[in-house]
Fold this protein.
Amino acid sequence: MRIEHVAFNVPDPLAMARWYVDHLGFTVKRRIVDPPYAHFLADETGAVMFEIYHRTDAPVPDYQAQHPAALHLALVSTDVEADITRLTAAGAQLDGGIDHTPAGDVMAFVRDPWNVCLQLVQRADPMI
């Protein structure tokens, strides 16, 4: 078995998909133009994908109220500080500070404009 995707119920999948394409470099693999307006977004490798949609029969989680350790989408960064600057200029918000681990990793949490938590990860020794 392998993972195909993880899904997030969000209030505005069309605007969110545009932001992820414009600011994170994701590509839309499939879009459904009728409710629930699903968008399947792939990372730059094309090997990892997640889905965003707006299902009215299920609650949209209160992403802002969730601690970053409870749920986040981790993204590889080659320069965490530069990515924070770029993403906050595009409407994201830093959630906490920049962490430097004993292993040499650099990490930070930012929330996208819909309050979904993204973790920017710059690994000293990449895991994948």
